[in-house]
Amino acid sequence: MERKNMSTAIDKFDERMRRRADRVGTTTVHRGELLRHPVYTRVLHWLVAIAFILSLLSGFALYTPWLFRFLTPIFGGGAMTRLLHPWFGLFFEIFFVFQFLNWFAPMAWTQADRRWLKRIKEYSINKDKLESEDVGFFNAGQKLYFWAIVLSGVLFLITGLLMWFDHVVPRWIVAISYVVHDLAGLLMLAGFIIHIYEGTAAMPGTFRGMTNGTVTRKWAWTHHPAWYRDVTGRDPREDCEREQRRLAERERAIEMWEREHDAQEDLSR
12-16, 82-86, 215-219: which has the minimum mean pLDDT? Predict the structure, then answer.
């Protein structure tokens, strides 16, 4: 009951924020497209991404002398980098709290996610052209990345504060904090690299969902069939097969036209 009440409160807060964001910006959904991410979600995503990249670069600048030479000039020198890094991290934490509330409900773990993990090898090598019909708004891989960010974010906050105010805690705690902070950063970096790959080269059409806010229907029934069914009320497999038949008929018509055109050219010679 408490979890349900918390989820309801989060949903109400998130809905209020969405409405406020929609007054500032709009999303145009064209024919053959579906709304994937509204203005509020996109703004949060890019604020979190920018804050993370700034934290990552400034953190790596302080992490090793080799990177110190190349990265600290971006932020105005070593002293300024040291000053800015914890603030970049704090902004990341604040923005991610709002993103956490925004995605709390769709990131809940389900039986479908357990089934997805059993075929993660097939997913990684793109063996299946279509996702399983029970894959909803997010698949299990996206959810794992989200919860990895949650874990890393908590570790960042705790260890970051301990290092920031290192004069009030024992030195051995500060030393451990440095190690945990670095490990959390490496975990985030690995997930970030995979996230960029999956959102661009691996799944073309995904990136526009975070820029324009929309995706094609074909993208939706291919990668998130259950979500496609929820928002359209249509069967994703039937629509996919219908599209394949349409493309096949179009290809045959083009081939027929080309043959007729070639035949006419032969007669005119």
Answer: 12-16
- Share the mean pLDDT of the chain: 90
* pLDDT mean over 174-198: 94
Q: Is the pTM of this model over 0.90?
A: no
Q: Which domains does the chain have, with CATH numbers?
A: 2-23+35-235 (1.20.950.20)
Residue 37, pLDDT > 90, answer yes
Report DSSP letters for the chain, one per residue.
-HHHHHHHHHHHHHHHHHHHHHHH------TTEEE-S-HHHHHHHHHHHHHHHHHHHHHHHHH-HHHHHHHGGGGTSHHHHHHHHHHHHHHHHHHHHHHHHHHTTTT---HHHHHHHHTHHHHHTT--SS--TT--SS-HHHHHHHHHHHHHHHHHHHHHHHHHTTTSS-HHHHHHHHHHHHHHHHHHHHHHHHHHHHHTTSSTTSGGGGTTSEEEHHHHHHH-HHHHHHHH-S-HHHHHHHHHHHHHHHHHHHHHHHHHHHHHHHHH-
